[in-house]
Amino acid sequence: MATAVKISDDLFEKAKIQSKVFKRSIAGQIEYWAKIGQMIEENPDLPIQFIQDTLVGREQIKVGQGTPYVFGEGE
């Protein structure tokens, strides 16, 4: 379900630029930023690079590139 939200012109312009760089829609870019921000707030002890790498890893698993890590295996 889509919902209209008002954002500043400045944020819109920044999202517009980043969306072109990362081949996302403007809404997709803002959703990505919101997702990262939410994860940072929920996990303030984790570095942002770790969070981003985890998201990339999850997407790689979804498309069959890699093997999910299972804690406790291989010990």
Structure description:
By secondary structure, the chain is mostly helical. It has one domain (10-62). The protein has three helices and no strands. The termini are far apart. The model has no long low-confidence stretch (mean pLDDT 91).
Q: What's the helix-strand series?
A: HHH
Tally of DSSP β-strands? 0
How much of the sequence is in beta strands? under 5%
Largest sheet: none
Radius of gyration: 16 Å
* Span of the ends, CA to CA: 45 Å
The geometry reads as elongated
Q: Share of helix among residues?
A: 55-70%
Number of domains: 1
**Spans where pLDDT lies below 50 across 5 or more residues:** none
Mean pLDDT: 91
> What is the structural class?
mainly alpha
Continuous helix count:
3
Features:
mainly alpha, elongated, 75 residues, single chain
Tell me the layout of helices and strands:
Elements: H1 9-21, H2 26-42, H3 48-62
Helix pairs in contact: 1-2
Outline of the structure:
The protein is mainly α. It has 3 helices and no strands.
